[in-house]
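Hey, I'm writing a tutorial for new members on how sequence and structure tokens pair up, and I'd like a real worked example in the thread rather than a made-up one. If someone can provide the structure for the chain below, I'll link this post from the tutorial.
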Amino acid sequence: MRSAALALLVGAALGSFDRPAGAAPRASSLAWVRMPGAEACIDARTLAQAVERRLGRGAFVPPTRGEMAIEGRIERSQEAGVWRATIRVFGEGGAAIGSREIEAGQVDCRAIDEQLELVIALLVDPDAALVPPGGAVGAAAATAGGAPGAGAAAQPAPRPSIATKAALPPACPPAPAAPSAPWRVGGAVEAMGGLGLTPGPANVGVGVRAHATPPRGPGFALGGALWKSSVAGEVPGSPAFSLAYGRLSVCPVEIARGGTALSGCAGAMVGSLRVEGPAVQSRFRHERLVFDLSLDTRVRRRFVGPLFGAVGLGIAVPLARDGYFYTDEAGERRDVFRASPVSAILDLGLGLELP
């Protein structure tokens, strides 16, 4: 009774009972696709063999010979956190008959193999007496060739209890495609430290950075920094250097796992390096264009809601290494500062990211 009821429900949902009573089952083809992330789920060959074992006969033909086409796919729904199998049935001429979905919240997608086998077997032949998984036809069916009338009295082997949806939906159009992932955009304020940008053993500064990551393709970063003035030399009148620049980067590497994201970016920094002497300003005051190529890697970690913290490490390579010097009263040249061939930059940031 349970087998007949389940067959009736599946048939009603997918329109598989619109054939004369007692007619031979339709020749059916099966197409089965495992979506990205579902590679460990049951494959098409194994599923077809399992269905044929339940029916006790060969069931599928090539698509060019089938009167009915069964197409299915299995995927992981990230929003609902469940495995979802979608089965669609098409009649002659490609007319859609209906669709069926099976969902399971188990970690292992193979937990719904039995449900898939049973539903597809009933689609192929709703009147069939199915063989239990891993078993053989029941003793009553085995004696169908015995005494007259024994075959009519034989009952199919009991079907195992499976967890299905409480009610099968009526035939409906295919579900719309899932929306693509949104852009991720954010901004942060940064505390920065550097080596080789201006005179002195270390440089400190502040900066801002905004980033945008599309669903596909490289991301982008835009920002700027202002570095604290540093003095070259210990004597009065030694020149002071101050640096400010803007930065634009392309980030072809973007790996996100949960609330953590790792990015790798390449870009350019354009700004100005200003130098002036506090005591003798006319001698040292000067401003030059700075154009550096940059590489950096950054890790972002969300804390609460959109709030995130970030740490980044990068290098800057100047296209031109300007040297700064002056001539003293004795006519001798005094070197003040020359840009490093490679500068290092470390930053710590705090910001917001949406969505």
